[in-house]
């Protein structure tokens, strides 16, 4: 039977596009059943990592949570860090896919930016402990998550540039990176404590204002 923690994680996962988004954005290896099994192991592992931390989580913990055999586990993952790395990659894929989907229906650039910021914080706070754990791990230069964080920031920067300025834009890429760092830092601060709903909404407003002020051209 699925625990309340797993149910909450699965709800967020499906809200972001779920198995279909992973299959469309993945590496293309294996049939659909392979994607489903991998995703199931990841989803089951999230509450375990969040509750026990990286150091104290064992492969046996992940086997028990996912209810899979050791043979099945090692068919898809080399070790527990491989699972965590896969969770991080999946989280990035789903969030970026949702940002892209939002482009068409958001209307103005300002509306898209506010919607993107709201989605970013809603997602992070919905599954807060694992996001905080992965963000802190990804900040370590020697972590396998670090290169994925770098690529995620580059992809998000390209998405901002394409949506807001198009080809030929001369804006320094560091502008985008700095704004993404600001969102990441704000998320970590909110996740470090029991942030109230009001504080979270205030953060969305402030970060939305910041991105709009920095990226949207104003007519004079």
Would you write up a description of this structure?
This protein is mostly helical and 220 residues long. It is 79% helix and 0% strand. The chain is built from 11 helices and no strands. Helix 3 (32-56) packs across helix 6 (80-105). It is elongated and about 55 Å long. Mean pLDDT is 82; it is low at 25-32.
Report the count of strand segments.
0
Q: Sum up the overall morphology in one term.
A: elongated
Tell me roughly what share of residues is in helical segments. Answer: over 70%
SSE succession: HHHHHHHHHHH
Percent of residues in beta strands = under 5%
Radius of gyration: 18 Å
End-to-end C-alpha gap = 60 Å
Protein name: TetR/AcrR family transcriptional regulator
Organism: Metapseudomonas resinovorans (Pseudomonas resinovorans)
InterPro entries: DNA-bd_HTH_TetR-type_CS, Homeodomain-like_sf, HTH-type_TetR-like_transc_reg, HTH_TetR
Pfam families: TetR_N
Structure at a glance:
About 80% of the residues lie in helices and about 0% in strands.
Can you give keywords for this protein?
mainly alpha
What is the strand and helix layout of this fold?
Elements: H1 4-15, H2 18-25, H3 32-56, H4 59-66, H5 70-76, H6 80-105, H7 109-126, H8 128-138, H9 146-164, H10 173-192, H11 197-215
Helix pairs in contact: 1-3, 2-6, 3-4, 3-6, 6-7, 6-9, 7-8, 7-10, 7-11, 8-10, 9-10, 10-11
